[in-house]
């Protein structure tokens, strides 16, 4: 019989080989803005808290516990005492205070975390109580605070000099020797060859242990091979050069017959978080350069008409989109949160079944009418309903094809729709700067905390796509959403918060500022050689990479 000690020892060693679509832009977590860099640095750095990838609940990470004052403003965190940085230096409260006071709230350092952690226009007061205790004093109650403390903590002893010399924004760039990048996470960067690969090796000082008491991580290395082309990634996986890849509905029919022969399994982790939707330009502003409205007043009268938007919602054939683009591996989306979001997701929002007859009835009841034997839709003043429909030439799989399907159905409603493919950055510029667009197909990333989408849903938000930066809410329902987000941020009772955010989701589904289409299925193909493998929509194929090991590996304890 194999002893427990021998069984544990046999789990150590080996490599996990994955693909990255591009090089990271930085290893500096504080100034990083792109998802690819964040995926890399997530192996190196940790926060005081993290989200359980399966329950989505906030759990301790570098903090072992915390207490909250009765008024909800003072949070006291007790830190783990067994944590060392990957260079062996002990972790302490000084690192936490440094991360917040000297990095995030430093006016000379650009950090997206500053926006999330600035509450009611004010920073959080962060102070050291003793070596392993930190106090946070909030200016007002802030319910998402605990979840926001997944913010990675940085090592003061490595970075203080760069801050002092005002060089921090340029510190830990991609040209930094890997040994100088120090974290508390399960892996350390040991090699980076631009355009080729990154190699992460086990952090010898990592604090976490398995439920059986084994020191983690089990793997020796995680290797990211840089492969920009998705089809090249697919071929390298088929050839055995990669251990896992994301699987689109389009690729599923190719991969599924190979599962047994190529020794892998395809996991469906459920609906993705990232949305796909269409949105009409309801910007009521005047272009300061041309002194003309951003949106033609005739078009604006259509786009701000709820009946018009509801007719369009009934013209989106979500089942057809799922069948054609996703090979059946997709989910209709009806509101602003994915079912994978968990607690705050409301499944009971208004839905719009595909029904062109009903769409025509809604339009005619709103004063639109048909000419040319029902082939052309005009408004009550006789204007032909014609507009441009922009979508990106790059980005999410199938978005252009999805836009073509929607255009076809809108034309069956008698609308003249000019499909305009544009480069992604150009599209973003139209949405955020020039406001020169009619209808757009695009998407947003999602998550489990509604408040983190405030920049989209708050009327003055910069990502309030249909009418950004409103000086005051343009409609009563937008005013109500502002109130919901204000109240939701300060309501500490989770059940009461859910009531508020359920109302928000129902308002969005009723008023249709954006019209949702479908969510892709989060699918992954993974080699049949890993133990402790538990894919999730929240964490991907390896939500806890430190706990993954290679089955029947003949390595030894390191």
Write the layout of secondary structure elements.
Elements: H1 4-9, E1 15-20, H2 35-41, E2 49-51, E3 58-60, E4 63-68, E5 74-79, H3 93-104, H4 113-116, E6 118-119, E7 122-123, E8 125-130, E9 133-137, H5 145-148, H6 156-164, E10 187-193, E11 197-202, E12 221-226, H7 230-238, E13 244-247, H8 252-255, H9 259-262, E14 264-271, E15 277-280, H10 297-303, H11 306-314, H12 318-325, E16 330-332, H13 356-365, E17 369-371, E18 376-378, E19 386-392, H14 399-412, E20 416-422, H15 424-434, E21 439-442, H16 454-457, H17 476-490, H18 494-511, E22 514-516, E23 518-527, E24 530-531, E25 549-550
Parallel strand pairs: 1-12, 19-20, 19-21
Antiparallel strand pairs: 2-3, 4-5, 5-9, 6-7, 8-9, 10-11, 11-12, 13-23, 14-23, 15-21, 15-22, 16-23, 17-18, 24-25
Task: Write structural notes for this entry.
- By secondary structure, the protein is an alpha+beta fold.
- It folds into two domains: 4-229 and 529-550, D-Maltodextrin-Binding Protein, domain 2, CATH 3.40.190; 277-449 and 513-519, Dipeptide-binding Protein, domain 3, CATH 3.10.105.
- It is built from 18 helices and 25 strands.
- The strands form eight sheets. Strands 20-19-21-15-22 form a five-stranded mixed beta sheet. It has a four-stranded mixed beta sheet with strand order 1-12-11-10, with no helix packed on it.
- A hairpin with a 2-residue loop joins strand 8 and strand 9 (133-137).
- The longest helix is centred in the C-terminal third of the chain and has 18 residues, at 494-511.
- The protein is globular and about 80 Å long.
């Amino acid at each position: 019989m194999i002893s427990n000690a021998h069984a544990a020892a046999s789990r150590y060693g080996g490599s996990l080989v994955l693909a990255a679509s591009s090089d990271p832009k930085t290893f500096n977590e504080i100034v990083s803005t792109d998802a690819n860099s964040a995926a890399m640095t997530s192996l190196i750095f940790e926060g005081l808290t993290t989200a359980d990838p399966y329950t989505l609940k906030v759990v301790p990470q570098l903090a072992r516990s915390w207490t909250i004052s009765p008024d909800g403003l003072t949070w006291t965190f007790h830190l783990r005492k067994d944590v060392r940085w990957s260079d062996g230096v002990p972790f302490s409260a000084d690192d936490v205070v440094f991360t917040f006071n000297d990095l995030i709230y430093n006016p000379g350092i650009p950090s997206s975390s500053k926006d999330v952690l600035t509450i009611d226009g004010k920073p959080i007061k962060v102070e050291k109580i003793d070596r392993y205790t930190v106090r946070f004093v909030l200016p007002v109650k802030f319910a998402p605070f605990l979840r926001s403390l997944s913010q990675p903590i940085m090592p003061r002893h490595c970075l203080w000099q760069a801050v002092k010399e005002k060089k921090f924004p340029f510190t830990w760039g991609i040209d930094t020797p890997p040994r100088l990048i120090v974290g508390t996470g399960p892996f350390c960067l040991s090699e980076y060859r631009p355009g080729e690969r990154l190699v992460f090796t086990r952090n010898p000082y990592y604090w976490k242990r398995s439920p059986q008491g084994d020191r983690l991580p089990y793997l020796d290395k995680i290797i990211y091979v840089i492969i920009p082309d998705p089809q090249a990634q697919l071929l390298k996986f088929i050839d055995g050069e990669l251990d896992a890849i994301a699987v689109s509905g389009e690729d599923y029919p190719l991969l599924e017959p190979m599962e047994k022969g190529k020794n892998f399994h395809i996991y469906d982790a459920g609906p993705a978080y990232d949305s796909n939707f269409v949105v009409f330009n309801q910007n009521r502003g005047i272009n300061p350069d041309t002194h003309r409205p951003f949106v033609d007043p005739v078009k604006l009268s259509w786009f701000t008409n709820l009946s018009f938007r509801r007719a369009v919602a009934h013209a989106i054939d979500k089942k057809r989109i799922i069948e054609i683009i996703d090979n059946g591996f997709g989910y209709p989306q009806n509101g602003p949160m994915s079912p994978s979001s968990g607690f705050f997701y409301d499944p009971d929002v208004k839905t719009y079944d595909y029904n062109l007859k009903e769409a025509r009835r809604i339009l005619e009841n709103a004063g639109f009418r048909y000419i040319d034997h029902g082939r052309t839709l005009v408004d009550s003043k006789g204007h032909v309903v014609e507009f441009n429909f922009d979508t990106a030439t790059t980005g999410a799989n199938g978005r252009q094809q999805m836009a073509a399907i929607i255009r076809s159905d809108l034309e069956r409603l008698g609308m003249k729709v000019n499909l305009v493919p544009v480069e992604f950055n150009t599209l973003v510029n139209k949405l955020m700067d020039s406001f020169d667009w009619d209808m757009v197909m695009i998407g947003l990333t999602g998550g489990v905390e509604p408040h983190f989408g405030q920049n989209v849903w708050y009327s003055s938000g910069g990502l309030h796509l249909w009418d950004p930066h409103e000086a005051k809410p343009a409609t009563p329902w937008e005013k109500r959403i502002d109130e919901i987000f204000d109240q939701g941020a300060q309501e500490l009772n989770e059940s009461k918060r859910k009531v508020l955010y359920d109302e928000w989701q129902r308002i969005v589904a009723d008023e249709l500022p954006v019209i949702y289409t479908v969510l892709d299925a989060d699918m992954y193909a993974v080699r049949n050689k890993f133990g402790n493998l538990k894919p999730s929509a929240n964490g991907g194929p390896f939500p806890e990479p430190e706990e993954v090991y290679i089955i029947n590996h003949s390595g030894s304890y390191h």
